[in-house]
Amino acid sequence: MVSQKISGKVFVLGDDIDTDQIIPAQYLVYSLEKPGEKEIYGQKALSGVPAAQSGLPMGNVPLMAEGENHSEFAIIVAGKNFGCGSSREHAPAALQIAGIGAVVAPTFARIFYRNAVDGGFLLPAESRDHLVSRFATGEEATLDLGAGTLENHTRNEKHVIKPLGGVADIVAAGGIFQYARKTGKLRNANHA
Amino acid sequence: MGMTITEKILAAHSQRDRVSAGENVWIDVDVLMTHDVCGPPTFAIFKKEFGENARVWDPRKVVIIPDHYIFTSDAHANRNVEVLRQFVAEQDLPNYYDVGSPRYKGVCHIALPEEGWTRPGEVLFGTDSHTCTAGAFGQFATGVGNTDAAFILGTGQLWVKVPETMRFEIEGKIPPGVMAKDIILNIIGDISVDGAAYRTMEFAGSAVTAMTMEERMTLCNMVIEAGGKNGVIAADATTEAYVKARTDAPYTVYQNDPDARFHSVYRYRAEDLQPMVAKPHSPDNKCGIVEVRGTPVERAYIGSCTGGKFEDFWAAAQILKDHPVKVDTFIVPATTQVSNQLKETEIGGRSLWQIFEDSGARIGEPSCAACLGGPSDTFGRLNNTEVCVSTTNRNFPGRMGSKKSQVYLASPYTVAASAIRGVLSDPREVL
Questions:
Q1: Looking at CA atoms only, how far is residue B69 from chain A in angstroms?
Q2: Which helix (H) or strand (E) holds A3?
Q3: Local structure of B67: helix, strand or coil
Q4: Which of B152, B16, B18, B59 is nearest to A185 (CA)?
Q5: How far apart are CA B40 and CA B86, in angstroms?
Q6: In angstroms, what is the C-alpha Rg of chain A?
Q7: Most buried residue among A101, A120, A187, B424 by CB atoms closer than 10 A?
Q8: How far apart are CA A42 and CA A46, in angstroms?
Q9: Percent helix, strand and coil across chain A, each rounded to 5?
């Protein structure tokens, strides 16, 4: 079961952040399971974003402090078409490994959205409005999918989050495998 | 209300009489393709979810084509190919195109059609976003992540949201010097990098009908760069001739119903088309070559699933046969078959391979190579502030290696014309 309420510091990015910026292709050689390699994905998450666009509005803020394995940020607020580009599931996985619980954007690229939902990596939440100018990196916020809100505590502003629609049951179950077992689509004993 | 080609394929694969855009349906999968980057994590999820001793749903329908990080000394990359071999051996999978074997192919999206895996009316999923290339064959083909691929491996099924279709009609005769790459860059520039999000892009009209399969593949390859779920071109005699020459497997040709409903229809006059480029750092940052010609470049790159097919090199050779290159020029045939064709096909008594060598270009081994950067020793990788003109499909920051580099996307004609002058150049001036 994925938590549908997440609080913490916000990391802000612009439009069209593609999967090569989320996790550059040179790191895809590492295992997503093996200890010692898996952590590299967290350390290198968003390392492909040009420095000036990393952590808006000021820029030059890395998601992960040097030598850390867990980011101080919990929620990404981004512009349109987040996660465009390749189908690499390593992208939502890298953000999850870094400690990100949700990405809020007005629109998502289709495969990133699917991967986030079916793999249960993080919550992809669609905002009604483009919110990049309404947040600064480091501000505190709470995403509440049930209430349909993203609250900026620093500015005391509330923004509308759209309902999940057709994927709500998969998100609630925690991924495609959990959903398929819950609905009887999958009946194998493993993890049943 | 009638159905589109995509709706008909999805209806047939969900045992329904009809489906409509917007519905979520479970569909049966005809082919699942994976490669060296996403195969290993897919197999790990498969074993975790279905058990260490689980068997794939149908070994004949699983196709494994290593292509991304092949010619590298990177130990982790080489380990991933070893993981593929182990899984293939455990599961006794017949359709594996192993590195170092006579079966090795190279870029999966070009190997799939060469080997007869792209069949009209079928459903193909692949763990790579450019799986949409196969829509050129009237197939429903799209990219998925590792979890979805692992689910398919165990069940042969996946849920999909039925997409709306955007239809692009291109009528007339394409002018000399203009290729499918110019057409798709123009369309992406018109609708933007998320203009087709969650939707099908269908290409039709007399200019598309007149295209070879390779040019049609170029159109469908880049629908993902507009956010599209899949591309589709109705199968016709050209399609069937290509497919029948490569497989005896049965297939079904679907057409749009006359009253099929489209999200939108865009119309282009082929005669108006011109050579295009996508400027750094986005595939929708388009302009005509005439607006940027003269811009210095330091590197030219011809390769990838978009621009590394035989006809792409045939086009480049029309220019390189008469001129030496002025900048570092990298030639990467998509597959071993393309590589062989370069050696076997001659213009004026010289093979294309010889023409490229004579021009001063460097020729690499068939694989994805520098299209997506890759390990630091990857052939053609941009490692610094290079300005590159390339036939590949993406130019987001850092895509070909270095965040400091700049990539202009263009057709093989335009890349070759720019290579011989060292500045972005209009191929119509040298053809």
A1: 8
A2: none
A3: coil
A4: B152
A5: 10
A6: 16
A7: B424
A8: 9
A9: 30, 20, 50
Domains of chain B in start order, with CATH, are 5-267 (3.30.499.10), 277-429 (3.30.499.10)
The string of pLDDT tens digits covering residues B389-428 is 999 999 999 999 999 999 999 999 999 999 999 999 999 9
Measure the CA–CA gap between B421 and B359, rounded to whole angstroms.
Answer: 12
pLDDT tens digits along B97-128: 999 999 999 999 999 999 999 999 999 999 99
Q: Which of B41, B69, B147 sits opposite A176 (nearest CB)?
A: B147
Mutate to test the interface with B, among A87, A112, A113, A169 (most CBs of B within 10 A): A87
Residue in chain A closest to B158 (alpha carbons) equals: A176
The DSSP-derived string for B264-282 is EEEEEEGGG---EEE-TT-
CA distance A115 to chain B (A): 6
pTM: predicted TM-score of the whole model, two decimal places: 0.98
Contact indicator for A77, A11 with CB cutoff of 8 Å: yes
Please list every residue in chain A whose beta carbon sits closer than 8 Å to the beta carbon of residue B126.
87
Question: Structural domains in chain A?
Answer: 8-140 (3.20.19.10)
What is the spatial distance between Cα B15 and Cα B397, in angstroms, rounded to a whole number? 43
Q: Do the chains contact at A87 and B131, CB–CB below 8 Å?
A: yes
Rounded Cα distance between B99 and B111, Å, is 13
Q: Are A15 and A79 in contact (CB under 8 A)?
A: yes
DSSP string, B157-211: EEEEEPPPEEEEEEES-PPTT--HHHHHHHHHHHH-TTTTTTSEEEEESHHHHTS
Which runs of consecutive H residues, i.e. helices, occur in B101-179? Answer: 108-114, 146-155
Centroid of chain to Cα A101? 6
**Those residues with Cβ within 8 angstroms of residue A157's Cβ, 6 or more apart along the chain or in another chain:** A134, A151
From first to last of its 431 residues, chain B has per-residue pLDDT tens of 899 999 999 999 999 999 999 999 999 999 999 999 999 999 999 999 999 999 999 999 999 999 999 999 999 999 999 999 999 999 999 999 999 999 999 999 999 999 999 999 999 999 999 999 999 999 999 999 999 999 999 999 999 999 999 999 999 999 999 999 999 999 999 999 999 999 999 999 999 999 999 999 999 999 999 999 999 999 999 999 999 999 999 999 999 999 999 999 999 999 999 999 999 999 999 999 999 999 999 999 999 999 999 999 999 999 999 999 999 999 999 999 999 999 999 999 999 999 999 999 999 999 999 999 999 999 999 999 999 999 999 999 999 999 999 999 999 999 999 999 999 999 999 99
Which spans in B13-145 are helix H?
39-50, 75-91, 108-114
Buried b (16+ CB within 10 A) or exposed e, A11-45: bbbbbbbbbbbbbbbbbbbbbbeeeeebebbbbbb
Residue A6, phi then psi, degrees to nearest 5: -130, 130
CA pair distance B314, B422, nearest whole angstrom: 21
| Neighbour count for residue B343 (Cβ, 10 Å) | 12
B36 vs B296: CA distance, rounded Å: 36
The structure tokens listed for A186 are 């999958």
C-alpha A63/C-alpha B115 separation (Å) is 44
**Contact check, Cβ <8 Å, A119/B145:** yes
Report the complex ipTM: 0.96
Strand extents, DSSP E, B283-360: 286-288, 299-303, 328-332, 346-347, 350-351
